[in-house]
Write a structure and sequence with these properties.
four-stranded mixed β-sheet; five-stranded parallel β-sheet; PurE_dom; P2CMN_synthase_LarB; single chain; 2 domains; 256 residues
């Protein structure tokens, strides 16, 4: 395996100084790995700061294993979302360097291998029924190197539970608020903190919840500024966006 180079110029310098062969340089310039059924984006981490994420739902075990092999061959961090326990167990047996988070439905690089930021994101969950989405957000952020603080079962029907943690939430740099039903929790949190809030509606609720549509519309219509709304049950998007903000803060602080 070759090292990853930050630019074409550094790649050319490596060839010039005999640190890299021409054949290895050609492999480094290859932007994707052609698997026939998939094209693995090998330059995603260079463009966006994190490798391609695998959406596990609908993919066969055979396809998943080949995709993982490609990512590991190129020394990429692995994150697979929406994967059931049967597929996960097959993958972990073949790749014991990965781990399965059952509540989040995620297989990923072991979290203890990943260095975490000092800055933190708060993952705030209204109720226990929302935990799979909240954990998808939390584990996604952790795989991306973010320190996470979890605040679960703090919905507005017992709002004193939220207030018991509000100072710890305020100390974080981003909040991801996961809620179903009427989705009021995101507006409450956004009105109490001075950092960005990502609201993630879930499909949890009774009939008029309309599988999360009511929650989505409620969050979109929030009167609390500083709130951005993700798609229904999109914990991955909430965790990913929070990670991007914190990684940006970390990058700029290192440049100062």
């Amino acid at each position: 395996m070759t090292d990853h180079y930050d630019s074409i110029e550094s790649l050319l310098q490596a060839i010039k100084t005999n640190q890299l062969s021409v054949s290895d340089a050609k492999a480094e310039l290859n932007q994707y790995d052609e698997l026939g059924f998939a094209k693995i984006d090998l330059h995603r981490s260079k463009r966006q700061g994190f490798p391609e994420v695998i959406f596990g739902e609908g993919k066969t075990e055979k396809h998943l294993i080949k995709i993982i092999h490609s990512l590991l061959l190129h020394e990429e961090t692995v994150l697979i979302t929406r994967i059931n326990s049967e597929k996960a167990n097959t993958i972990i047996t073949k790749y014991p360097q990965l781990e399965y988070h059952a509540t989040a439905n995620i297989v990923c690089t072991r979290l203890n291998y990943i260095h975490k930021t000092e800055r933190q994101t708060a993952i705030i969950c209204a109720g226990t029924s929302d935990l799979p989405v909240a954990e998808e957000a939390a584990v996604t952020a952790e795989v991306m190197g973010i320190s996470v603080k979890r605040f679960y079962d703090v919905g507005v029907s017992g709002i004193h539970r939220l207030f018991a943690h509000i100072e710890d939430i305020r100390a974080c740099n981003v909040s991801v608020v996961v809620a179903g039903m009427e989705g009021a929790l995101s507006s409450v949190v956004a009105g109490l903190v001075d950092h960005p809030v990502y609201a993630v509606p879930t499909s949890i609720g009774y009939g008029a919840n309309l599988d999360g549509v009511t929650t989505l519309l409620s969050m979109v219509n929030s009167c609390a500024p500083g709130t951005s709304v993700l798609n229904i049950d999109n914990g991955f998007g909430g965790g990913y966006n929070a990670a991007m903000i914190i990684n940006m803060l970390e990058h700029h602080s290192k440049m100062e």
